[in-house]
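Support case: user asked for a sample of complex input and structure output to validate their parser. Sending the pair below.
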Amino acid sequence: MNAAQHHTLSVLVENKAGVLARVAGLFARRGFNIYSLAVAPTEDERFSRITVVVDVESAPLEQVRKQLFKLINVIEIQELAPGDSIERELLMATVRAEGAQRSQVIELTAVFGGKVLDVGHDELLVSLEDVPERVDDFEDLLRPFGIVNLQRTGRIALPKLRKVPPVRSARAASS
Amino acid sequence: MDEITGGEALIRSLELEGVEVIFGLPGGAILPVYDPLLDSPIRHILVRHEQGAGHMAEGYAHVTGRPGVAMVTSGPGATNIVTPLCDAFMDSIPMVVITGQVPTKAIGSDAFQECDTTGITLSVTKHNFLVTSAEEIPWTIRAAFHIARTGRPGPVLVDVPKDVVDPKNPNSRMRWYWPDEVDLPGYKPTVQGHPRKIQEAAELISRSVRPVIYAGGGILKARASEALLELAELTGIPVVTTLMARGAFPDDHELALGMPGMHGNYTAVTAMQKCDLLIALGSRFDDRVTGNPATFARDAKVIHVDIDPAELGKVRTPDVPIVGDCRVVIEQLVEAIRKMGGRDCQPDRSEWMATIRDWQRRYPLRYEPSLPGEDLKPQFVIEQIRDHTPDDTIVSVGVGQHQMWASQYWRFRHPHTFVCSGGLGTMGFAIPAAIGAKVGRPDRMVWAIDGDGCFQMTAQELVTATCERIPIKVAVLNNAYLGMVRQWQELFYEERYSEVYLSPDIPDYVKWAEAMGCEAMRVETPEEVGPAIEKANEIDDRPVVVEFRVDTREKVYPMVPAGASNDDIILGPAISKGSEDHD
């Protein structure tokens, strides 16, 4: 994916039926390919957060962003710059692992900090939760063993937290 | 608190929203709502096709500013109203459409007359709702009207499954309530313009020597005509009114330039091309106005006012973008300019106005009158209707040549007198829209100016008009062709007339109109035109159809071909000849 065209939007929506179709439809109507899409309810059950990654230039994206905001169920849209946010993705894969390969897959998974979730006669079910680029690397390295099943969640992201306390006025600090 | 059925709640909710009329057609899924309608003071107008119901609701909304309401059944009833929904969406018409749906348990089972109505209408509505329980009905109707009429107005659809309104079904039992307000956390339209932007705009205006106000349909939606007049007169800036804004500024005003765009007049088109400041108010830089956007108003700075932030920068990046309600923002602008000195702070624009006057003198709208024995000129017919009807007559149009001639040759003096399908360009709009307009403004004379192609699409709604005693007048400009398509084939396809001939005599429009209960006349000579219109004006107990046999070869000029630059406007033979006369 071209980094210059990579945009991550975090869209807070009302947790109502059909909202995802409305949001996805706005991208589809303009012929934009959604690279990754993740959606789940938030800490407040009335709302869900959609993290959508699109591969598009900024100008058309700005128009989509405005059109998205016109949707009655959309409450807030944030564009998350990669440097200013923490991104994660989860991968689960069933990998062929017969004989000597079995220990190699286990070792590779351990190196990446992943987990072996299930063990079969000649297959392993492994998972990795990490930044999308590391997940890409892991997937690439698993491929030579033979990936039987693969599922990735699509990325989720939240803004980075403030590292220094906010500057307060002297009066506010003293009171 | 009383316990009622969902159907009763729906009708009661509509009453509380102030609905006075519903345009609709019942069917199985919506029957439980039609039953309590019998006991309601709300008038129901039974249409002959659901598309008619939708356009009637639009016509009603155009002239009253209140949301038009249509109610139809599930499946084909719902799909038939998709065109009006899209039309209303494109033209920002407030409308609420209620559709019946199969019972909740049957949804998704391909039940009889089921379709995924909210799915189908997702992209042509401002918002839509699928009601899932009777309790949701009052809140949903309240929210639907709130969304339809606030912010950028638009159509809202409410899909109602049969079981939640059916008195025989326990799912329809509910305790009545009426919400004081609707909680829509994601919906907060901005009304006031940002003060800093207002000031920037006022300063830009006061420095511009060649400004033009580009007034769009948003002026009418925001009820901003008076504010617009005040701004124009305070600053002395000329005004173009787009197709959707015709009537927003009086055509007989000295600052009125008329319609710009593909079939706009030379002065309106060229003034926009040559201006140094474009003050876009509730207009969306539609391709029919801008021509090729790369060459549109090249030297102009742009102030763009719109209640919809997505319009700002969509086509042209504005120098001063202002999000807000057009009326409120114009009033803010007027105040800011007054504070700066009002008329006194405006620069000398006499040279600009002299240039404009010169264009107006040299390139007026013009057509060649017909010679004796020739077919009627459609422009002449429109001028005659205009001159034989009251000043505040409402005129609705279909789509095509007749629509453009009506916009060009009518003289609009009042807002909300032109009912037109602009964005979608829906053939067959005129007659049902005229019916809706007459229902909304029964005190006004309403003329539909239609083409023969358009007439054949929705003429059956004249049966509705007759039965409901809605006395509209219809002028059918019969040129035996799909005229605008023919014009394009003549100009751009080497006169290869593919599938545009309709026949002048089949159907027999007079007999057809009479069969639908209308008074009907056929007019073929210039002498008959005035008297026929006078006669039509006198008939007030049923609809009247006047068929005018008009010249097939007549074309709409000026014209900017699709995608061309507005600099390359084609004047047409009559205007070019007229300009030579002046030189």
